[in-house]
């Protein structure tokens, strides 16, 4: 405990701690602290708010960064502007008040007559930490121990370099990320295909060597051995022969390229298949929280695109990289052997060209992005107005919509115009630079031929220029390669993140096996929140006896579904405990939880397949008799039999359209066949008409025999069989008892009941 | 339109009967006719287009006291008090110079100079979080970082060329 506290306190920077000491305050006595980035006048500052047993301190000031020993070392000092002290015994509680652009910390005095007062202001990024600070304060006032979990706050900054994580839940620092090791891991997927890989490299090397050597054979032979005057030969025959040699060389080169494409085409899809399988398997073991988290939702959507990125990097990027590097080096070596002086001139020009390629590529990327954004806006406008045609026509706004479209369309046109205009100017200019280099070489080479310097011949010069033009391709490619590489690594990073993600709701190391649950559920002082600082369930205690039915009633957003999700351990409680048959749900084996708890929820999902497959989902070995019995129990049998394909009707995406009620009945049948000991009905019959609901109710009555049932419903009539009712309001249980007791109590339940009863009565009189 | 107003109680406040006074602890109170509302909350209905008009006044319990059509109709002192409160609630530092924008893994890291001091922040999805404040008035630009903090460039045309170039590509 003290260790955790000292670790927690050590996060106050050294220079700030010194200042606190300097003010005569013992840092080790500090119970909790929070950093605020704003002074009360909304100017950015470095303020520290902390408290010990008796006083609450507000220290305002600035971090001053100075250079020490030249520019290499930086030294940080804290310049204190003010230090205020408040007697804790006069403060009742602290509270965070959020504004649109900032948030502030308010103190409520013990004396009721006194108004609360502001003690600090901060930007929204700090508000989450400040919430925890407020909780620590409340705990201290209530004499509760320092909450260990609450002090483990989320790291927002990279501990290595101090750069802020783009996404705190990802904890990936773009600066410190080890790009090589990620690539290494990616390569790991190739290890099962080693043989093919070696084969692939040999072919690549062969084909490159061949393409590098072919100008030497073709061009030089043609000019020096055939077309040079004075060489005694049968000219026509020689020309023909050289042509044949060139064609043969090209054909062999072509063969190699096809061969290499064939190998990579047969290798990479296997690797990508492995990768996708691994991602999908990892995703299956993650908990529900992962899927409801918005950011990870986005992450998932990208997985497909990410694997595609990786695919193209390996299919196109890597082979071309090897080919281009080999070509580049090979060509330079041949040039140096042929004529060192000319080669050096070319080498000097290379960085200039490389720089130009890179610069142009960068500015084009911006323009392409701009054009892409405008196109995206345009197409979203098109789909918007297509979807809204009824409304547009109803308000006779066709003309305005056309005008609006014209505006977006014009933006897209202008962006494209800018792009193509620049392209039309830049590319000819670029090739002019390349031509200039060529001319320089030709001029100098020409002089060398005339003066007979270094055995220069026409053939050599022509071959040399042919080699020069072979350099531009690799250069252009290499200038783009870094982006390609970065994109692939970024994609790979995201993919590995999913593969490596740990489920929040993990099975205990030594899980307790309860193959057959009795169904005694006890929730004790349960607290739960999806996001820190926004509690959904507050200090809730509830017990359900074996074989009983509990109805949970409350307004929308009261936390009813959260309660059952916690019972089924789709999430873990933040505080408190939930036990089933006396064992904490965190210790029960996952497979036993799943086998014994059946949930019929308001979200209905049918998988692609037949109705029978869907009903059998939880136990594939069920016989057709059982399937029909379950369907009958769920009042689904009748409508299924009316479908032309009966139980073999295909449902799910692209299958037969079923109504919400029909789908729900199938999902109830799916739960019935599972034969769970604990049955959770979360608004199971909300989307059905009263008649169907009644029939399902009747079949459920059968089902409920000998099972513990927890039912959530809006319509109170759904809960008429419940043994007890729990009324939930804003995450708290406000009433608990039987229907009669609660009616007599004339509280929240009575009001709800009266409201619904009156509505029904009203309809009756209106008719 | 006037018929429409009869449909629902608009509850427009008479500016001449309003008295706004800052209270202890950093709140503001409103005295309207003979009633006093302590610790009221002010909300802009159109925070970008007309930040001084249609100000909703909400009492401690979250119930609307009424709507103030234009704070310029108030007395000078009251107007000032309301302005101070609104500025605090809608606090948004103005960027005077963009020192650097770095693109890392699809996130943009900004280093800027604001009227409140130097500031570093990160944002995701730049083309959505850097945008013109209103479609009618091109010039003012709002940047929203990953924590939800807002920053304003008051006039894009007046900021220096180097700063402008750094975010031009994100603007649509």
How would you describe this structure to a colleague?
The complex is a heterodimer of chains A (767) and B (172). With 767 residues, chain A is α+β, with helices and mostly antiparallel strands. Chain A has four domains: 2-151, PH-domain like; 181-339 and 489-502, ABC transporter transmembrane region fold, CATH 1.20.1560; 341-455; 521-766, 3-Layer(aba) Sandwich (Rossmann fold). Helices cover 56% and strands 17% of the residues of chain A. The longest helix of chain A is centred in the middle third of the chain and has 54 residues, at 398-451. The radius of gyration of chain A is 37 Å and the shape is extended. The mean pLDDT of chain A is 80. With 172 residues, chain B is an alpha+beta fold. In chain B, 19% of the residues lie in helices and 40% in strands. Chain B contains four helices and twelve strands. In chain B, β10 (130-132) and β11 form a beta hairpin. The longest helix of chain B is centred in the middle third of the chain and has 14 residues, at 76-89. The model of chain B has no long low-confidence stretch (mean pLDDT 84). At the A-B interface, β6, β7 and α10 of A face β8 and β9 of B.
Report a brief summary of the structure.
The complex is a heterodimer of chains A (about 775) and B (about 170). Chain A is an alpha+beta fold. In chain A, about 55% of the residues lie in helices and about 15% in strands.
């Amino acid at each position: 405990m003290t260790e955790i506290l000292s670790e927690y306190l050590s996060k106050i920077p050294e220079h700030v701690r010194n200042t606190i000491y300097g003010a005569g305050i013992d840092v080790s006595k500090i119970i909790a602290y929070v950093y605020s980035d704003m002074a009360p006048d909304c100017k950015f500052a470095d303020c520290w708010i902390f408290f010990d047993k008796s006083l609450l301190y507000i220290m305002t000031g600035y971090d001053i960064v100075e250079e020490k020993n030249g520019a290499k070392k930086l030294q940080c000092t804290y310049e204190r502007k003010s230090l205020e002290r408040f007697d804790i015994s006069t403060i009742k509680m602290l509270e965070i008040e959020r504004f649109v652009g900032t948030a502030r910390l308010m103190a409520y005095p013990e004396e009721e007559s006194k108004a609360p007062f502001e003690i600090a202001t901060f930007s929204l990024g700090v508000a989450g930490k400040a919430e925890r600070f407020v909780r620590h304060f409340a705990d201290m006032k209530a004499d509760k121990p320092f909450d260990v979990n609450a002090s483990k706050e989320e790291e927002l900054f990279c501990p290595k370099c101090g750069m802020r994580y783009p996404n705190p839940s990802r904890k990936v620092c773009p600066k410190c990320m080890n790009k090589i090791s990620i690539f290494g891991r990616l390569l790991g997927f190739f290890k099962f295909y080693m043989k093919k890989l070696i084969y692939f490299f040999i072919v690549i090397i062969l084909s490159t060597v061949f393409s590098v050597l072919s100008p030497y054979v073709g061009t030089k032979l043609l000019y020096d051995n055939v077309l040079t005057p004075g060489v005694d030969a049968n000219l026509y025959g020689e020309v023909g022969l050289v042509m044949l040699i060139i064609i043969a060389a090209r054909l062999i080169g072509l063969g190699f390229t096809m061969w290499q494409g064939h190998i990579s085409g047969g290798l990479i899809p296997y690797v990508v298949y492995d990768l996708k399988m691994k991602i999908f398997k990892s995703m299956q073991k993650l908990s529900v929280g992962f899927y409801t988290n918005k950011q990870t939702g986005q992450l998932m959507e990208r997985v497909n695109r990410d694997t595609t990125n990786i695919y193209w990097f390996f299919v196109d990027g890597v082979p071309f990289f090897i080919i281009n590097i080999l070509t580049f080096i090979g060509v330079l070596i041949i040039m140096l052997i042929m004529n060192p002086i000319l080669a050096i001139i070319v080498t000097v020009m290379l960085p200039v060209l490389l720089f130009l390629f890179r610069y142009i590529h960068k500015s084009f990327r911006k323009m392409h992005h701009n054009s892409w954004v405008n196109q995206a806006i345009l197409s979203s406008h098109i789909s918007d107005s297509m979807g809204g045609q009824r409304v547009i026509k109803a308000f006779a706004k066709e003309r305005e919509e056309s005008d609006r479209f014209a505006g977006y369309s014009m933006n897209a046109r202008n962006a494209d115009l800018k792009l193509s205009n620049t392209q039309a100017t830049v590319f000819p200019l670029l090739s002019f630079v390349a031509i200039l280099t060529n001319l320089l070489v030709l001029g100098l080479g020409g002089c060398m031929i005339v003066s007979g310097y270094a055995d220069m011949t026409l053939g050599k010069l022509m071959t040399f220029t042919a080699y020069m033009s072979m350099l531009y391709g690799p250069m252009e490619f290499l200038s783009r390669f870094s982006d390609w590489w970065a994109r692939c690594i970024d994609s790979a990073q995201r993919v590995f993140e999913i593969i490596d993600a740990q489920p929040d709701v993990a099975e205990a190391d030594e899980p307790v096996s309860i193959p057959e649950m009795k169904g005694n559920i006890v929730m004790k002082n349960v607290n739960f929140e999806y996001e820190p600082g926004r509690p959904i369930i507050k200090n809730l205690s509830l017990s359900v006896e074996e074989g009983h039915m509990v109805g949970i009633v409350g307004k929308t957003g009261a936390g009813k579904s959260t309660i059952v999700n916690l019972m089924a351990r789709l999430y873990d409680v933040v505080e408190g405990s939930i036990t089933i048959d006396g064992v904490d749900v965190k210790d029960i084996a996952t497979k036993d939880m799943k086998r014994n708890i059946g949930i019929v929820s308001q979200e209905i999902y049918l998988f692609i397949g037949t109705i029978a497959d869907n009903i059998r989902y939880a136990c594939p070995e069920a016989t057709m008799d059982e399937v029909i019995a379950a369907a009958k129990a769920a009042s689904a049998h009748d409508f299924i039999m009316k479908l032309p394909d009966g139980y073999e009707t295909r449902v799910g995406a692209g299958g037969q359209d079923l109504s919400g009620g029909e789908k729900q009945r199938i999902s109830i049948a799916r739960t019935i066949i599972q034969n769970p000991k604990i049955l959770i009905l979360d608004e199971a019959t909300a989307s059905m008409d009263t008649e169907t609901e009644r029939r399902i109710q009747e079949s459920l009555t059968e089902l409920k025999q000998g099972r513990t049932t927890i039912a959530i419903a809006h319509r109170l009539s759904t809960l008429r069989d419940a043994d007890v009712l729990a009324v939930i309001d804003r995450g708290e249980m406000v009433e608990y008892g039987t229907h009669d007791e609660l009616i007599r109590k004339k509280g929240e339940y009575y009001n709800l009941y009266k409201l619904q009863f009156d509505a029904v009565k009203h309809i009756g009189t209106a008719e | 339109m006037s018929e429409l107003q009869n449909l629902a109680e608009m509850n427009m406040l008479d500016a001449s009967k309003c008295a706004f006074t800052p209270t202890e602890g950093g709140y503001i109170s409103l005295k309207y006719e003979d009633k006093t509302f302590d610790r009221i909350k002010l909300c802009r209905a159109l925070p970008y287009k007309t930040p001084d008009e249609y100000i909703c006044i909400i009492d401690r319990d979250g119930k609307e006291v009424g709507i103030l059509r234009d704070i310029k109709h108030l007395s000078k002192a009251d107007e000032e008090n309301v302005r101070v409160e609104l500025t605090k609630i809608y606090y948004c530092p103005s960027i005077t110079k963009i020192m650097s924008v770095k693109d890392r893994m699809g996130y943009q890291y900004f280093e800027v100079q604001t009227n409140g001091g130097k500031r570093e922040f990160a944002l995701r999805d730049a083309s959505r979080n850097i945008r013109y404040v209103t479609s009618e008035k091109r010039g003012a630009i709002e940047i929203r970082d990953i924590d939800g903090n807002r920053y304003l460039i008051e006039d894009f045309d007046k900021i220096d060329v180097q700063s402008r170039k750094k975010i031009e590509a994100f603007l649509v």
